[in-house]
From TrEMBL:
UniProt xrefs under InterPro entries: Endoribo_LPSP/chorism_mut-like, RutC-like_sf
Tree of life domain: Bacteria
CDD domains: YjgF_YER057c_UK114_like_1
Entry protein name: RidA family protein
Length: 111
């Protein structure tokens, strides 16, 4: 990941710190799940460099300009990359976790 971080620095970008959730919030899903050699990432939003939720928040065209939405999308992408730095438990998926997505046609079977 050092090469990726040096490239981001060269582009003037910085990965945020891990998200800072309020003390009473417990997430019941993982941000990243590993299946084989793929990482499935979900549930991300724009983060400020310190890990807090980036502002402004709202709907494009009503609460946010197109430029603000573009910036939020860039921050969301950086948050997704940063979540790959956090140690991810490598547990084998349950049989039901593998079969359900295949039955629904959402992902293709591993090759």
């Amino acid at each position: 990941m050092a090469h990726i971080e040096s490239r981001l620095t060269a582009l003037g970008l910085q990965l945020p710190q891990p998200i800072k959730l309020p003390p009473d919030v417990v997430l019941r899903f993982p941000w990243v799940r590993i299946h084989g050699n793929r990482a499935f990432i979900s549930g991300h939003g724009a983060l400020a460099p310190d890990g807090s939720i980036a502002t402004p928040l709202g709907k494009v065209g009503r609460d946010l300009s197109l430029e603000e939405a573009y910036h939020a999308a860039k921050l969301t992408g950086l948050a997704m990359l940063a979540s790959l730095k956090v140690p991810i438990p490598m547990k084998p998926p349950l049989c039901s976790e593998m079969i359900a997505p295949l039955d629904s046609g959402m992902i293709s079977p591993p090759v």
